[in-house]
Amino acid sequence: MPDATALVHSAARDGFTREARTYGRGRPDYPPALAGWLTGALGLGPGRRVADVGAGTGKFTRLLIATGAQALAIEPVAAMRDEAARLPGVEVRDAPAQALPVADAALDAIVCAQAFHWFAQAAVLDEFARALRPGGALGLVWNVRDESVDWVARITRLITPYEGDAPRFHKGDWRRPFPHPAFSALVESAFPYEHVGPPQQVIIDRFMSVSFIAAQPEAERDRVRAALERLVATHPQLRGQDTVRFPYRTLAFHCRRSGG
Question: Best exposed site among 47, 99, 155, 174 by fewest CB in 10 Å?
Answer without folding.
Answer: 47
